Structure formats: C-alpha cells, structure tokens
Amino acid sequence: MQAKQYVEKVYEDLLKRNEGQVEFHQAAKEVFNSLISVFEKHPEYVENGILERIVEPERQLMFRVPWTDDKGNVQVNRGFRVQFNSAIGPYKGGLRFHPSVNLSIIKFLGFEQIFKNSLTGLPIGGGKGGSDFDPKGKSDREIMRFCQSFMTELSKYIGQDMDVPAGDIGVGGREIGYMYGQYKRLKTSYEGVLTGKGLTYGGSLVRTEATGYGLVYFVDEMLKGKGKNFEGKTVVVSGAGNVAIYAIEKVHQLGGKVITCSDSNGYIYDENGINLDTLKKIKEVERKRLTEYVKYHPQAKYTEGKGVWSIPCDIALPCATQNEINEEDAKTLVKNGVIAVGEGANMPSTLEAIDVFLNNKVLFGPAKAANAGGVAVSALEMSQNSMRYSWTFEEVDAKLKNIMKNIYENSVKAAKKYGFEDNYVVGANIAGFIKVAEAMMAQGIV
Ligand code: NDP
C-alpha cells in the first residue's frame, strides 16, 4: 500500500474508533499530514504498525472525584489521566482543570505531548490529565478538598518513575501544592511525583517562567533565522495566565512591546505596553478579572468578547486555549502584516488558520515545538529531584534556552530533509515522531 493510502486508512479507523472526539481528530490529522513522506522512506514503520499503535493510548483512566463545597453540599466531578506513550520515558504531561475538559480534549493534549516531549531531547513519554472541575469562584478550602480527592484516586496510577503530572489551565502552584501534600500523605514517600512544585519543597527555578520564556526564545530563533529580532516589534498576546504573563515578560526584556492580553471574558489594549506588575497583581495575587486593569491604567481599553487578533501587530502569540485563531482571524493577522506567530497555547490555531499562515510565508512556530519549554524544565525538575540538588536560575534558564534552540534547529533540519523547507509544523512533527518510532521499533510489539 502507498504511504498516503496507509495514512488515510489509519486515520479513517481512528475516526471510527474515537467517534465524536473532534479535538483528538484534529490533533491527529495535523501530525498524520506531516508523516506521509516519512512512511515513504521508512516502510519498516508501516510493517511494525507504529502509527496504529501510537494513536492508541497505552492506558486511559477515568474516575469519580467527589468533594464537599463550603455549604456542605456534595459535588461530583470527573477525573482523567491518559497515559499515551512511554517508549522514551515515564509519562509526562499536565493536568487541566476547566469545565470544558472531556476525554477528547485530554487525548488531543496527550497525543501532542508525545511529540513535544520527544522534541525536548529529554527522556519523557507522553500523557495528560485533568478534570471538568471549574476552579473559578471556588474558595481556597474548596480547591484544597477537590485537589485532595482528585489525588486520592490518581495516586494509585502515578509515581516518579511511572507518570509525573504537572500543571496546565486551572492548575498552578497552589493546586500542585495541595496535590503533592495528599500524595505524600497517602504514599509516605517524598518523591518528585509532580513538577511545578514550590521552591521550598523540590520545585525548580524557572519552571513558572519556562513555557512563556521558552516560547519567546523559540520565536526569537525563527526571527534570527531570517535576520530579524524582537527589538521594536509590536506584539499581540492572548491569555493572561501562566504562559501569557511570562511570554510578555520575556518579550519586554528583548525589546518588543506587548499591547494586549485577554481572559475568557474580554481583552485589554494598552498602547503603552502591558504593565506586568499590574497584570501579575491582578492574576497571580488577587485572582481577579482583567476588567481591574483599567482601574490602574485609565489610558488602556477593556473590550468584552474576543477580537484581539484584529489588532495590527508584527508578532502574534496565542497563549490562552485551543482553536482560538480561526481562518478569518489568520487572514486578518496576515492582512495587518504579521511576520511571525508562536503558539504558546496547545493547538490554538485551527488547521485552516495554519494553512493561511504557511501559504503567506508567515514564520509559524507550532505548539509542540514553541511551547515545549514548560515540559522541558519540568524534566529538569525531575533530574534535580533525583539528584537531591537544585540548579541556579541562570543555570536552568541557560539550559532552557539551549533546548529551545535545539528544538528549532532539529525542526528546521527535519523539514529540509523531507523537502518542506521553512515549514516548522512538518519539521517538528517529523523530528518528534522519529525518535519515538525508533524506540518503539527497538522495544518490539508492545
Ligand atoms: P492558565 O490557567 O494559567 O491561563 C489560561 C488563560 O487562558 C487565562 O487567561 C484564561 O482566562 C484563558 N482561557 C482559558 N480557557 C479559555 C477559553 N476557553 N476561552 C478564552 N480564554 C481562555 O493556563 P496556562 O497559561 O498554563 O495555559 C494556557 C495554554 O498554554 C493552554 O493551552 C495550555 O495547555 C498551554 N500550555 C501550558 C503550559 C504550562 O506550562 N502552563 C505548557 C505548555 C502549554 P480565564 O481566566 O478567563 O479562564
């Protein structure tokens, strides 16, 4: 069978076996489209069913998470952990707490994670988890009780050498702390079972900043490849969470100006550049909505709803959530002269939007390459925990920068080798895939 037909057949089977899981279909399709040329060169991957095996998670867990709210009412949420692929290391990937979470979303994130983790060059497999729990408006004690109940079940299936979760949307330092405490209590073991931990109990310096900083390091490499840089560039960012905040910080350090940020209700436009002290105070300390920003900076404008992509910019960094840039948004960005797009969020651009960017020669950094800095520093946190040692901020930051540079170079190299020059989507997919495929080949049909 021709490589193209083979890939189409596996995709058709995937659609049948995973009915209705539209986000998972989308993530798989993006990777599949990139791999046809790989299967042409490597028939042994076809013979060994690498693609059929890689799209089937090794293990999928769904469980009840009961907890009591502050009024004494019983609440029930659903917990997930998808252990997708452990060919190159223990499962690794974040936990997302958001009401939209379902099996399709966790599977798309887990699938992406396999290739992202491979691209980092570090020994980590792919997994993802979370819950449809909504942390918004919950008291600190409610968050704690939820996290304890969630971990009570999850603890049976994870471990420092088996599966090491981290944070994602709705899961930051506070949630990781509560889950770590419960794990330790249940297992009586002080081990690096989670990453993103606080600095007083085994966390790594730079983990908080890693995804946002790494994203900007990656985009900087893309710009440098074309003789450009961030100096004097106008940048539009979506989101106002962990990834967005530290992407903004690094852009400002490199001489660019970020003029927007957003949450799920609306966005801020500040022509003076987003004030980071204010943003951190509102989001990290007070945990309030973005409407607060204009109270401190009356010259800024708050607009309800979406629309951040209609603001003219040189560089766009989507850092909120999946499918936040559609075809129309992409066309608007191109019309307004965008030169580079770096995906901080996972799968923020639809497949149609990606085509618009690539067809218009926009430098496009796909999520699995551009936002891999978070999981890379998580893996460095695992190393430090194993050594019972901590590196300095400068040491970890230098390692992060180097990892992002390698990811860029490996993506460029793979794209060129297979005839897709300047297409970092194909390059990242191929570079990430080949390492995992080789490990799977070596380990037999398991
Ligand atoms: P946070 O929870 O810290 O922040 C998420 C931000 O995105 C918030 O501003 C949130 O607004 C907004 N947002 C979330 N969902 C939606 C939605 N449906 N529509 C519009 N806005 C939304 O999460 P992170 O910053 O950690 O994660 C952001 C993205 O980056 C996700 O795609 C995540 O998977 C990805 N990522 C994160 C990594 C990490 O290390 N944290 C690593 C790699 C990728 P609101 O407060 O209103 O919900």
Automatic annotation (TrEMBL):
The active site is at 128 (proton donor). PANTHER family: NADP-SPECIFIC GLUTAMATE DEHYDROGENASE 1-RELATED. InterPro entries: Aminoacid_DH-like_N_sf, Glu/Leu/Phe/Val/Trp_DH, Glu/Leu/Phe/Val/Trp_DH_C, Glu/Leu/Phe/Val/Trp_DH_dimer, Glu/Leu/Phe/Val_DH_AS, Glu_DH, Glu_Leu_Phe_Val_DH, NAD(P)-bd_dom_sf. CDD domains: NAD_bind_2_Glu_DH. The gene is gdhA. Residues 204-444 form the Glutamate/phenylalanine/leucine/valine/L-tryptophan dehydrogenase C-terminal domain. Homohexamer. The keyword Oxidoreductase applies. Belongs to the Glu/Leu/Phe/Val dehydrogenases family. This is Glutamate dehydrogenase. The lineage of its organism: Bacteria, Bacillati, Bacillota, Clostridia, Eubacteriales. Keywords: NAD, Nucleotide-binding, Oxidoreductase. The record marks 168 as: Important for catalysis. GO terms for biological process: glutamate biosynthetic process. One of its GO terms (molecular function) is nucleotide binding. One of its GO terms (cellular component) is cytosol. NAD(+) binds at residues 211, 242. Transmembrane segments: none annotated. PROSITE patterns: GLFV_DEHYDROGENASE. Substrate binds at residues 92, 113, 116, 167, 378.
